Amino acid sequence: MKPYLRAERISGKIQHAITELLSKKMQDPRIEMVTISGVKLTPDLRIAYVYITVFGDKKRISEALDGFKNSKGFIKKRIAPKLGLKYMPDLRFVHDDSFDKAARMDELIKSALIGTSPTDTPDEQ
Predict the structure, then answer these.
(1) Does residue 102 surpass a pLDDT of 90?
(2) Is the pTM of this model over 0.85?
(3) DSSP codes, 52-96
(4) On the CB side of 38, how many CA atoms lie within 13 Å of its CA?
């Protein structure tokens, strides 16, 4: 049985706190329609990698990451009291592309079942 690590518990708290903050207090248009898909803390609890999912093109993803980087101080200040830690971890925002990869794999599987290439158009069949 794997022990329940402190870093995992705190990661969950950080994810919940940031998600709650996004839904209530954040007014930056660059980070609208963004989902926090996960948080991973380093074992020493100094760095928290916050994974975000953004629906849109690369420009939209870049804008959302810039919005989070600019709001990092505000976010840390708001969530620190909820965590009850001696030191607030440094937040690093990373785009989570696992949903994009999953959608691509789903598209490839569907096209394999149908027997067409995913780039084929209906006119080429």
Answers:
(1) no
(2) no
(3) EEE-S-HHHHHHHHHHHHHTHHHHHHHHHHHHT-SSPPEEEEEE-
(4) 10
